[in-house]
Design brief:
alpha+beta; five-stranded mixed β-sheet; two-stranded antiparallel ribbon; 3 helices; 35% helix; globular
């Protein structure tokens, strides 16, 4: 299985689990923490590697700086999941995830808004399209 197929399989799995969680909890919980905790629980039980609230330093001029950034979830060291519970996803939410993808050299992330009636309306798949030649290091691995 190549990397693209692997990433597609991981994101499909995550989306399926999130849909089941959303059906069980319904929208409207004002904090995304409940959805995040359930997602971690289910993915770990499926045997996936999950890192929750992973610190994301910024490397500037060769120095690693802790700036307080945290990934909601990093799945299998390859997929970033950011969970929101907001009225609408805004361009700034996508920009945040894209920044995280660039900083981690990950190729794909999921932006999930749990505060929607139909979860399919609250999921965005975001892809970092940098060519592989620019990926000289993978700081989270």
């Amino acid at each position: 299985m190549d990397q693209e197929e692997r990433l597609n399989k991981i994101t499909e799995t995550i989306i399926g689990v999130v849909i089941n969680i959303h059906r069980a909890l319904w929208p409207g919980l004002l904090e995304s923490a409940a959805y995040e905790a359930c997602l971690v629980y289910d993915l770990l039980n499926m045997g996936l590697k999950v890192e929750q609230q992973k610190s994301l330093p910024v490397v500037y001029r060769g120095v690693k700086l802790e700036c307080g950034y945290r990934l909601d979830l990093l799945i299998e060291n390859e997929v970033i999941v950011e969970i929101k519970s907001v009225e609408n996803l805004l361009p700034i939410h996508k920009a945040q995830l894209m920044s995280y993808l660039k900083l981690t050299y990950c190729k794909v992330g999921l932006l999930i808004n749990s505060n929607v009636e139909l979860l399919k309306d609250g999921i965005q798949r975001v892809v970092n399209n940098f060519p592989d030649s620019l990926r000289t290091q993978r700081p989270l691995r």
